[in-house]
Write a structure and sequence with these properties.
Elements (H helix, E strand, L loop, with lengths): L3 E8 L6 H13 E9 L1 H6 L11 H15 L4 E7 L13 E5 L3 H13 L7 E4 L1 E2 L9 H5 L13 E7 L5 H11 L3 E5 L6 H4 L5 H9 L4 E9 L2 E8 L2 E9 L3 H12 L5 E2 L1
Parallel strand pairs: 1-2, 1-4, 2-3, 4-5, 7-8, 7-9
Antiparallel strand pairs: 6-12, 9-10, 10-11
Helix pairs in contact: 6-9
């Protein structure tokens, strides 16, 4: 059951993507009713974003939010309103919780500072983890406008993925999982099969992932721990996810588990 009455969030919501969906889903999870502020065209003209000529008009951005809400939360009480200034309705009475993304939490703090300045109580802030794209960089409207990724976080350009296993029996399964989960991936064994260094690689998947990353944009390491248990590490420049424990019975189950780990919708980073 929702913990709060009225949840409020705001944003540009250009080219509605999986990060927006995560933000709205949390708002409907914690709030009985939800208000969504969508920045107006006038506000954006005064506060320009990268590639402003490619930003959708307000009506289209608002329609994307409404369409998603109707599809996923039919029957719930919500409002989608124009956001013409920095704070909108977030500083008004009747707000019980603010919902922000992990990369805009400072905006939530600014709202509470403004509420206090106006003599109103601060409200709790729900921080939603950032959704990561195939390359482990955050999914964002800017990247979509630039043509780097699609709305699901899929890379449009080829992605060099170096992979390594501590047990050779897992090699084929890992390659199949990478190709299924990351359509733009170009998987390559790293270190190569005949590398002495690779043969002597540490059983620590984090150390092996750092070695893999030296020659690839994304590193993916699967380390067998027990007959049906593995540790998995993903690594990109400045970002490490894992080790994460995966349990599976048989190659097919392991492949499905690894695909689940690699999909952008499954990757959230605080």
């Amino acid at each position: 059951m929702p913990r709060y009455g009225h949840a409020v969030l705001g944003g540009t919501f250009d080219r509605f993507h999986v990060g927006h969906a995560a933000l709205l889903a949390r708002a409907f999870h914690v709030g009985r009713d939800v208000s969504v502020g969508v920045t107006t065209d006038g506000f954006l003209s005064e506060h320009p974003k990268p590639l402003p000529e490619r930003i959708q008009p307000y009506a289209r951005r608002r329609a994307g939010v409404v369409r998603w809400i109707r599809a996923h939360y039919p029957g719930r009480t919500y409002r989608v309103v124009p956001l013409a200034n920095r704070f909108g309705r977030s500083v008004e009475p009747g707000v019980d919780v603010l919902v922000v993304s992990a990369d805009t939490w400072a905006g939530g703090r600014a709202v509470n500072a403004e509420r206090r300045r106006r003599g109103r109580a601060a409200v709790p802030i729900e921080i939603v983890p950032v959704v990561l794209a195939d390359d482990l960089a955050p999914v964002s409207s800017r990247r979509i406008r630039a043509g780097e990724i699609d709305r699901r976080g899929r890379r449009r350009a080829p992605l060099s993925v170096g992979w390594a296993v501590t047990d050779p029996r897992d090699a084929d399964v890992v390659v199949r999982a990478i190709r299924r989960a990351l359509p733009a991936a170009r998987p390559a064994r790293a270190p190569p099969r005949n590398s002495r260094r690779g043969a002597r690689a540490s059983a620590d998947p984090r150390a092996l992932a750092r070695q893999v990353l030296r020659t690839h944009a994304l590193g993916f390491v699967v380390a067998r721990r027990r007959p049906a248990e593995w540790d998995v590490v993903e690594l990109a420049e400045g970002i490490q996810l894992g080790p994460r424990r995966v349990r599976a019975r048989g190659p097919g189950a392991l492949e499905r588990a690894l695909v689940g780990v690699l999909r952008p919708s499954a990757r959230l980073r605080e």
